[in-house]
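Lab notebook, bench 4. Still working through the backlog of constructs that have no structural model yet. Next entry is a single chain of 305 residues. Request: give me the structure tokens for it.
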Amino acid sequence: MKILIIGGTKQQVTQEVRAYYQKYIDFFKKSAGTVADNIVFESSLIDDLIISVGDGKFSIYDTNNRSNLKEYDVIFIRGDGFRSYMDAVGSINEYAHLNKIIIINDYSNVRDSSKLLQAVYFHKLDIPVARTLLVTSAVLDNEAQLEWNFPCIMKSTHGSHGNDNFVVQNMEDVKTVLENQPDKRFVLQRFVPNNGDYRILIIDDEILVIGRSAVGGSHLNNTSKGGKAVLVNVDQLPETVINDAKRIMKHFGMAIAGVDALADKNTNEFFFLEVNAQPQLMSGAFVTEKEKLIGKLLNKLSNES
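Model written out:
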């Protein structure tokens, strides 16, 4: 049996951090000796992992032990510094379940709006999402292993309204963004060539589709960043896209949700970007139409109470 102990880092990977988790290995080896002698223990850190999800694949590679996490029988997440990495913890948890790996202390109840964890859930639901990478030390130091193409999108794991969202041309650009914003964490996402995106606003059983397109050479379609907006008839989108948006909303247990999707302008294939539990209602485009949908929801709730 192989057991992987995964630790966290508060700031950066140091020898002291490595030594701390070696103590865990020594402790577990001593404990295992009382019941079995065929257990192999290894340790790694969140920053050692290359977490990649999207385009139909989900993988987690441990650069410290040079192994895929699916090679382990048991995963134990332990230590300090996880508060800012709960989306990574939740992603590891989902990966373990998908690969039938025992995980000590289940983290299925993790609720996090991170773009990484949303991409993991979209993959789990078999909903198309462009390949997404959590930016860790392992990603920065192992570009040759990534099979990654630039340019791509780099965005804050918890960014909203198009903030902290960049087009990066190479790994040096990635490092520059990190240096300029050391307090934030980021993901890289494959760039999908597009003529705009769609905000699928779902309020209870009602749907409002807003088509958004960038202006002024920007890659951002968000109306909060000056993007143009038009109302789109629901029938203009493929039925599967609308159904997938509803499935996303149901999975996250929302009554009001803004689901963002776009079509590859070369293939017409749709990809989902994210779901927003706090979509713009009092601002942005088509506030009057939003008011009507909220009114229908409030009327329904009033009749049910």
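Notes after review: The two ends are 55 Å apart (CA to CA). Residues 15-32 form the longest helix (18 residues). Flag for follow-up if needed.
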